[in-house]
Amino acid sequence: MLDVLKNQRTYALIGHGGCGKTTVAEMLLYVAGATPRLGKIEDGTTVLDYEPEEIKRRGSVQPGFATFQWEKNRHFLVDTPGDLSFSGDLGYILASVDAVLFVVDAVDGVKPLTRKLWQEVSKFRLPTIFLITKMDRDRADYQMALEGIKHQLGVKPFLQNVPIGKAESFKGVVNIVENKAYVFDANGKATETPIPGDMADEVEGLRESMMEEIAVCDESLMERYLEDPASVTLDDLLAATRKAVVCGELYPVMVASGLKCMGGQRILNAAQLFFPSPLDAPVGQKMVDGADGSAVAVSPDSPPACFVFKTQFDQFAGQLSIMRVLTGTIAPDAALFNTRSEAKERFGGILLLHGKETQPCKEPVGPGAIIAVAKLKETRTGDTLCDEKKPFTLAKPKLPEPMISYALAPAEKGDEDKVFQAMSKLLDEDVTLRLTRNEETGDMLLSG
């Protein structure tokens, strides 16, 4: 299992509403062969935005999950809502992934909500690749978006790719690390091509800056670079870049057009190359912090522990508890202890998520896996499930406090209990909601 885990990737797509996250996610799924056609928001055919309300709004109102293979390696992808009204539990999602693909719109650039989302991501110190998307659109301005990342988000961008052309003439990228150019065909497939002559000087200057930025993060590489720059190979650069990304010292910037399927292959390659596995830590053994100040080592051989970060209701499977395997190995018939309810929960199987579809997983899964388990009776969002003999409770991220409240009243007097019962599913799905009763007026209050 160690070899599988070392090549496994678990990451979230994050960005403000309308920046093109879901379109990028659909492109990645299509390029990876996880879906037979490229889903489009305008047509209501996306894999990850499938609820009627999402199709109507043309935007995500809940996280979308996908499990797929890229180059025979398993990827777990979480597409997060970009509207703050639906992202109150973002902290739970960030605690459940190993990296972030942060999407910035080439037309609108960095917006106030982009800054707010980046502040939240920064708290978790997750390795991040910035993706400037919508490069094919009118008014697409790569330089403006890049300056926004640099000055408004306070990030020093590491230029992994730079665009060839802009707006309707966007047709490819130059990979600065590889020192190669690629153009996209009508299906988005990348083919190597000579670096355009009018970009040669710019690329040479960017490449020199890139070499220096990487060398600064690796002392041994810096010594070799200063002594003999020609001795530094591409493999050396890629290894040093990955190390710096995992440590949060470099933030690669890439470009794409999700709608035209341009750049998906390059993004997946970068995620595989630079994002950490669930076992990787900047220094030493990766640990998970407990609520009591303890910590456990992340390993498939450790006692099992899972964090339930989302609850959804499926019309066929019923309640789905969506969780990340924190450590240990989870079998389809596992029996784990809920540290909050002190109940023992027996799994009736493990499900892998792909939009609204679920697929039974017959093999044990290890750290980093995003799985769903149906019909757990005593488990809610935010709970930790673990080995009863080795109890462990994750130190949960703090969620935002409610900002507004509405009074609820039953249609008929005496039906208050029915209202409470009906609201229970909603409260399970959105952990940021609160249902209380005002002692003075007796009103039921829904706050969020």
From TrEMBL:
It holds the Pfam family GTP_EFTU. Keywords: GTP-binding, Nucleotide-binding. Gene3D superfamilies: Elongation Factor G (Translational Gtpase), domain 3 (3.30.70.870), P-loop containing nucleotide triphosphate hydrolases (3.40.50.300), Translation factors (2.40.30.10). SUPFAM superfamilies: EF-G C-terminal domain-like, P-loop containing nucleoside triphosphate hydrolases, Translation proteins. GO terms for molecular function: GTP binding; GTPase activity. Residues 6-279 form the Tr-type G domain. The keyword tRNA-binding does not apply. CDD domains: EF-G_bact, EFG_mtEFG_II. The keyword Nucleotide-binding applies. PANTHER family: ELONGATION FACTOR G-LIKE PROTEIN, TRANSLATION ELONGATION FACTOR G-RELATED. This is GTP-binding protein.
